[in-house]
């Protein structure tokens, strides 16, 4: 049974708890991305040790390989990947955006060619719910239409109405007896009036939770943050709010302050495999020569397995030698860094000190122009072929 309790607020920021059949989730929360049933380079023990409460799988990718029916025969995704805690699955609607060259959208659903073997498939609102039933995730998403921020307002209106129609069909197909929590997805691009209309329409369904889709797809942060705040304000106070595909450290802080409870993103593990690791001062690349002779942890303030057991010089060596252990250790560090931010944000909300925390974060943290470009390149777009 899915429930949400809002426990504390500080301004627009919220701290709460979600209960599912596979355990409790304390919010705000960051969800590591296990696109194909695995967070790249990590195993479930790693994830539990670094403090992950929930992971995200992608129904589109899992449907194509190994197949949702096969996952069902293994007892569902929890059993298949040996993950005992909650799982959220994305529907594949985003792949309708990222795989534009392989798909066609029509009123009945999305027809596309597999990026794996070129075979033809059709996702409908009903089939997407059936796939996620077979996967047996705790929180599920309906099929939606995600557009580029450059699309016309007319196209956004069309996409918003199609997303709403598909949600109605998803609700009808799911039936009330399901223990899976179906979230609605608010669309509308960067148009505040469309976001308001979409949020109000979806709120009428009294769903277990609500997602904000169609962001982190090429717009600037200056464009994204106001839309996040506007949209979250139109959503019910008593339901969790999930900002899809957003997860850089600065985005977590700024969007929690604006009322968001849940996040996911491939960014922390994707950049980790390039040697980019987070610190309170910003992102640093451990492959740089300055780390070669550092006989101390990469981040002395970090309590992760990487920083409490190995030197920066050793991590530098692993990357230069192209050892797979480098990817694991850097991924552990980056995910632990984000989870510690979420824990600190939750504590700040409970203590009524969210603005003080935000100011402290920005006193140290710096985002370079290069980092901003990489964030944009490797955010939601990296889910194109399961590269999370």
Kindly name the structural category.
alpha/beta
Largest sheet: 8 strands, parallel
Instruction: Name the shape in a single word.
Output: globular
How many domains make up the 3D coordinates? 2
Helical run tally: 16
CATH class of the largest domain: Alpha Beta
Low-confidence stretches: 381-387
CATH architecture of the largest domain: Alpha-Beta Barrel
State the CATH superfamily name of the largest domain: Queuine tRNA-ribosyltransferase-like
Distance from N terminus to C terminus (CA atoms, Å) equals: 29 Å
> What's the CATH topology name of the largest domain?
TIM Barrel
Chain oligomer state: single chain
Strand numbers in spatial order across the main sheet: 4-14-13-12-11-10-6-5
Helix content: 40-55%
Describe the protein.
This protein is an alpha/beta fold and 388 residues long. It folds into two domains: 264 residues, Queuine tRNA-ribosyltransferase-like (TIM Barrel), CATH 3.20.20; 101 residues, no CATH class. Helix content is 42%, strand content 18%. The chain has 16 helices and 16 strands. Strands 4-14-13-12-11-10-6-5 form an eight-stranded parallel β-sheet. Strand 13, helix 10 and strand 14 form a beta-alpha-beta unit. Helix 7 runs parallel beside helix 8 and helix 14 packs antiparallel against helix 15. It is globular. The C terminus is likely disordered.
Spell out the blueprint of helices and strands.
Elements: E1 3-10, E2 13-20, E3 23-27, E4 29-31, H1 44-50, E5 55-58, H2 59-64, H3 68-73, H4 77-81, E6 87-90, H5 95-98, E7 103-106, E8 109-113, E9 120-123, H6 125-135, E10 139-140, H7 153-174, E11 181-186, H8 192-203, E12 209-212, H9 221-234, E13 241-243, H10 249-256, E14 262-264, H11 267-272, E15 276-279, E16 282-285, H12 305-309, H13 312-320, H14 324-350, H15 354-364, H16 369-377
Parallel strand pairs: 4-14, 5-6, 6-10, 10-11, 11-12, 12-13, 13-14
Antiparallel strand pairs: 1-2, 2-3, 7-8, 8-9, 15-16
